[in-house]
Amino acid sequence: MSKKEEVEEVVQSVTPILVAAEREVLEEGKEKKKVVEDGFELDDWTISEFISENDFDMIDMLSDALEQVSNQLDEKQREFLVKSTEWTTKTRDSLKNQTKKLEDQRSRIQELLVKQYHKIDKRMNRDAKTVQLRDKISFVVGVGNACVAPALALRYPNSIPLYYSVQLVVLVILRYVIYRSRRWHYFIFDICYFVNCMTMLFLWVFPHSSILFLATFCMTNGPVAWAIITWRNSLVFHSLDKVTSVFIHIFPPLVTYCIRWMPELQKDVYCENQSFVTSYRNTRFPALGDIEGDITFRQVMMYSTTAYVIWQSLYYLFIMVGRKDKVESGLRLTSYSWLLDDTHGKKGFIQNTAFMFGAKWKAEMFMFLQLVYNIVTSIPTFFIYKSFYLHTGFLMAMFAVSVWNGANYYIEVFSRRYISEIENIKAEDLKKTK
């Protein structure tokens, strides 16, 4: 093989390596800056430049060429790195400015929303006559339920589901409208409303589902009923908000009570009619006919815990994750944000326990507390389901607690606050007329 052929072979073997190296650098530069500088062109080299009679001279020339290309590659990399750093800095500054503008815009929008909510709330309470009319209607509804519901339950327990359903639709719609104006409407995603939905589904969609009935029975007579104590529900007749709160906590257990004990409630002391009433109940609610004997403790725990886990999962995804920014910014108020807020008073058991492992885990600790509460309050439902008299006494006790809380409110709060509120509204009306 001649010298020329040897040189051509060496150059041909080196050239692809150099071309690949140059292409890699150029492509890296394109990704970072989209600008490509003039590179070292291998095509400018000629075979004659590497031809020499001395093999060592040829090695030196090739070594120099490789070193030259390596130096140029290093230089290009440094240039691209510098330009990439400059571009990254400019981009970062631009993103910061844009982010600041968007945050300012969001703050202004939030302020406008808050003002609009206050405006709507003020419009709904701007007139003394409107406030008085609303409270009179609430008084009629509250007293009516306190008188009519027990009479219906004792004489016509089969009418309680319809009586409950009509009121629930009306009261929840009114509550949503009012809470929406005050930015409280995320409260409607709490577990008590979820259980009310379970009750409605059983009554009108799945009356044949024994699993849904047992889960509803355990949840209504467990966490929902006991919430009258934990949330201090007060039977304040003139307050639509408080009347609604008592309704959504006491009526679902009353509905399941009437369905479970319908034969006992309509028992005739003069003739045997329980078989007829039982047949009617099982026809209207086939789930009761499918339940053989008494429920087991395992069923109570399994059904109540499953219902809680379903609600908690939905609540976590929709509220605690999906609406996290709105809740943390104060634009929306939820039960867990209100309970964990230490700005409205002294820290209680819930706050101290929720912050046991720091603020980072407060949401998880709060969910754990709710799970424990759900389990503990579901345990008595096992015994309540078995005993008519125990169930009756339990509902009477829960109702008595709401009445006691209402009495405390009237004596300690209402006598001062309500009169002051009406006088302030009348004073504002007088100012407008002048």
From TrEMBL:
Residues 59-115 form a coiled coil. InterPro entries: GPCAT. Pfam families: DUF2838. The chain crosses the membrane at residues 137-156, 162-179, 186-205, 211-231, 243-262, 300-322, 365-385, 391-411. Keywords: Acyltransferase, Coiled coil, Lipid biosynthesis, Lipid metabolism, Membrane, Phospholipid biosynthesis, Phospholipid metabolism, Transferase, Transmembrane, Transmembrane helix. The keyword Oxidoreductase does not apply. It is a multi-pass membrane protein. GO terms for molecular function: acyltransferase activity. GO terms for biological process: phosphatidylcholine biosynthetic process. The keyword Zinc does not apply. It is found in: Membrane. GO terms for cellular component: membrane. Belongs to the GPC1 family. This is Glycerophosphocholine acyltransferase 1.
